[in-house]
Amino acid sequence: MAYVARGRNDVVNYPVEDCHDGQGTIFVRQVLGYEPLLPVPGNPGDFDSLINFIHETTLPPGTSIGLHPHEGNEEVYIVTEGKGEMTVDGEKVPMEPGTACLTKSGSKHTFRNVGDTDCRIIVIEAVFDAKDKKK
User: Fold this and answer.
1) Is 132 helix (H, G, I), strand (E, B) or coil?
2) Does 37 map to a domain?
3) Is the pLDDT of residue 97 over 70?
4) 52-66, 97-111, 118-132: which has the minimum mean pLDDT?
5) Cα–Cα distance for residue pair 52/72, rounded to 1 Å
6) For residues 84 and 77, what is the distance between their CA atoms, to the nearest angstrom?
7) What is the pLDDT of residues 101-127, one digit of tens each?
8) Do residues 93 and 82 touch, judged by C-beta distance below 8 A?
9) Separation between Cα atoms, residue 69 and residue 51, nearest integer Å
10) 118 lies in a domain?
């Protein structure tokens, strides 16, 4: 097939406890692709390229994604709703709707909701080498 179309209502919004040793319960929809490190079903055959996944993740107030490294891949967080704070290698980046932050290979990052409402983000991960493609 020449395309894959899947929306937020086509996939389950799975609760994930203490993601990467973060705080609280966040909710992840694996819209396209697959991240096997999360207890969330996905679709590993979606991408022919070196993109692993596109998630929609919701962080309720007071929750966070814990500090974790990226080696051999890059990850983009894009805020679509709410207010967040990304910390990459110790540098804090305030994030609001329309803000994107790229974490490059060799860096570590964390993300937290700093607002009074849910913070919704789109997360995209790609690898450099086909051997690192998640299946």
Assistant:
1) helix
2) yes
3) yes
4) 118-132
5) 12
6) 10
7) 999 999 999 999 999 999 999 999 999
8) no
9) 18
10) yes
pTM: 0.94
- Domain annotation covers residue 61: yes
Amino acid at 123: V
Contact 15, 27 (CB under 8 A): yes
CA-to-CA dists, residue 58 to 8, 30, 87, 94, angstroms: 12, 12, 18, 17
CA distance 102 to 54: 14
pLDDT band at 135 (very low <50, low <70, confident <90, very high): low
In a domain, 2, yes or no: no
Q: Which residue range forms the structural domain that includes residue 98?
A: 11-132
Give the angle subtended at the CA of 56 by the CAs of 50 and 61, to the nearest 5°.
140
Task: Report the 10 Å Cβ neighbour count for 135.
Answer: 7
Domains in the chain, number: 1
Cα–Cα distance, 35 to 51 (Å, whole number):
11
CA distance linking residue 64 with residue 26, whole number of Å: 8
Domain with 97 in it: what CATH number? 2.60.120.10
